[in-house]
Design goal:
By secondary structure, the protein is an all-alpha fold. 88% of the residues lie in helices and 0% in strands. The protein contains 2 helices and no strands.
C-alpha cells in the first residue's frame, strides 16, 4: 500500500466512526420524550404487574389456609 492509500483508508475509518457516533447521539436524544402510546403501555404494564402480585398473594393466602 502506498502512503496515499493508508491516509485515505484512515480517513474513511474516522469519517465512518464520526457518522456512527453522530447518528447514535441523534437517536438517543430523539427518544427522550415519552409519547402517549409509551405512557399507555407503561400504565398497562404496571396494572398487569399489580394484578399478578394480587393473584400471587391470594394464592399464598389459600395455601396458608389449607395448611
Amino acid at each position: 500500500m502506498t502512503d496515499n492509500n493508508v491516509v485515505l483508508k484512515t480517513l474513511k475509518v474516522w469519517a465512518l466512526a464520526f457518522c456512527m457516533i453522530f447518528a447514535g447521539g441523534a437517536v438517543l436524544t430523539g427518544c427522550e420524550d415519552k409519547g402517549p402510546a409509551e405512557e399507555a403501555g407503561e400504565s398497562i404494564d404496571e396494572s398487569v404487574e399489580e394484578a399478578g402480585d394480587a393473584m400471587e398473594e391470594a394464592g399464598d393466602e389459600v395455601e396458608d389456609s389449607v395448611d
